[in-house]
Each structure stands twice: as C-alpha cells, then as structure tokens.
Amino acid sequence: MAMNNRIDVVIAERIFDRTLISPKEAQADAEEVWQKQPGCFVFNKGYRAHRGAAGEFVFDGWVLPEYSASIEAAWLVVEELRRRGIRICSMCDLGAFWHCHFSDGKASWVAAQDTPALAICYAAMRAVGVNLA
C-alpha cells in the first residue's frame, strides 16, 4: 500500500471511525465491498460499499477523501478534531516545509511535512495517538 494511501486509511479509521479489513476478514460479496488497493479493503462497519460512477471507492455515498493530498479533504480533519476539542493553533509555510500545530489546551502535537495537507494529517494522527514513521 502506498504511504499516502496508508495515511488516508489511518485518518479514516482513527478520526472518522472507518475500518480497514483484509479480504480474508471481509464477510460480504464483491458487490458490497470494492477492493481499494491490492490486498486490502476499506469498509465502514454497517455500511454498504460500492464503486462510484468514476470507479472511486464509495460507501453509502461517502467517498474516501485523499486527506494527505487535498487541502480541502485535510480541512475536514481539522473540523473533526475541532469538534473533539482539539484546535489548530498554527499552520505556516516555512519555506522547505509546512508546519502544523494542534492543541487541546493540555497537550500539543506538531508536524512538519512537504505540503499543508500532509502536515495536517501527520499532526492530526499524533493528536489521536498514531505516529507513522
């Protein structure tokens, strides 16, 4: 699985309560679950999954956003964390990389990455206890 796809799946799992299951664990036929990447399925507990008109992965009208590639999708992460009481404190371009800082008033989580979307994703994952190397 490509790293950015892995980040998107982790964000979907840990921030938006989606679940990653392997084909062996899938208890639905091929029309209910669409294979996103070789060797894995993305599936939401209790939701029917299917292919969208353009071949994209959809479950009940919800398309798995590319959180790590799109600032619009990454901002959904910011909004969800805000709903949980975790605020974005700073987001800035430091030339060679972007810096993102989240805080809940007691703890802080930061990340520096090549793009604003990646910086948001890495800092958000740290805020929910995930640290991808």
What do you see in this structure?
With 133 residues, the chain is of the alpha+beta class. The chain contains 3 helices and 9 strands. Strands 1-3-2 form a 3-stranded antiparallel β-sheet, with helices on one face. A 3-stranded antiparallel β-sheet has the order 4-5-6, with no helix packed on it. Strand 4 and strand 5 (57-59) form a beta hairpin. Helix 1 packs across helix 3 (116-127) and helix 2 packs parallel to helix 3. The protein is globular.
- Count of discrete domains: 2
Number of strands: 9
Based on secondary structure, the structural category is alpha+beta
Q: What is the top-level CATH class of the largest domain?
A: Alpha Beta
Can you summarize the main beta sheet?
Answer: 3 strands, antiparallel
Name the average pLDDT. 77
Assembly state here? single chain
- Per the CATH scheme, the topology name of the largest domain is Double Stranded RNA Binding Domain
Low-confidence stretches: 22-41
Global shape: globular
CATH architecture of the largest domain: 2-Layer Sandwich
Q: What is the element string, with H for helices and E for strands? A: HEEEEEEHEEEH
User: What is the count of helical runs?
Assistant: 3
Radius of gyration: 16 Å
N/C terminus separation: 15 Å
Helix content: 25-40%
SSE diagram, text form:
Blueprint lengths: L2 H12 L4 E3 L13 E3 L2 E4 L5 E3 L5 E3 L2 E2 L7 H13 L3 E7 L4 E6 L4 E6 L2 H12 L6
Antiparallel strand pairs: 1-3, 2-3, 4-5, 5-6, 7-8, 8-9
